Sequence to fold (366 residues):
Amino acid sequence: MEFVVKRDTLLPVLGTVAGVVERRQTLPILGNLLLVARGDRTTITGTDLEVQVENQCAAEIREEGETTVPARKLLDICRNLEEGVEVRFRVKDERCVITSGRGRFSLGILPAADFPSMESEIGGLELALEEGRLKRLLDKTSFAMAQQDVRYYLNGLLIELDSSGLTAVATDGHRLAMAQSGVGISIDDRRQIIVPSKTVLELRRQLHGADEEIALRVGEKSIEAVVGQMRMTSKLVDGRYPNYEQVIPRELSKRAVLKKEDLRRALSRTSILSNEKYRGVRLAFGEDVLKLQAHNPEQEEAEEEIEIQYQDEMTAIGFNVAYLMDVLGAVDGGEVQVQFQDGDSSSVWRGVGVEGETFVVMPMRL
Fold:
């Protein structure tokens, strides 16, 4: 196998593929990328057995073939080459020799035949939507996914498909994020799938919020996403997601409207003296004023006040400040509204006048 490719063409492709390769693997071949030189293109594939990313770039193919090379080493080599140079790959004597200018790098290889491949499911539901629309759903919800929870179905993102569009939901048991997007789908019944957290985070990294179309194919056990030359295939989480609609409080009598940036800055300052382990901040809603308070085991205290729109009885609620900061980062618009009943019940946060987003945050005892 031998081919020549421009460094500036190869590097972005490597960046999209190498992200799925784990630094520690159970199988040595999983630390490698599969390189396939055919026709006038080189196809590069990486996988961790749960998610697979394939991308390709134009190249001058001098001898067709395939091999696998260490992912991190190849990416680091290409990153450190000069811009605009050509890179030559040649497999010889059980080594992949990479040359560029006066530089020469000899990498160990493993047989391409040993590289695991995830096959695409035949059939399934197919749909197309704008790349930016899907990225918005992922950006607004993925922060609430659980991390290594024994309830494995929470370690992912629920995507619900019906005739009205897409709904994305994530929860870790302490907070919930839901975002909706109206997309025309030819589907008779409601369909739910759980996408693993790594796939969600990797897809977020790949998407750029553009108007380019992304094609999705949803099977019984896997999902496939295609954007341009990039193809991502992932297994789905086998499980049943809890009924998220029961988690969202419906009858909340109190409502406050806050300027998002004022609240974000006040939380940042107040949380400096919060307990480093629990990160709790007390929010006391009074008439047109919000008082923020935090303290820590060293008897240090912080207080802030900001103006808000609120006309009801005084109510104090304790929150994990990190949860609120995540919500503020996901909310659209310059103002945020919060609805609540008392200091012991979940609150619902949304952007003022924004449709299709709901954030539920449970209180914490301080």
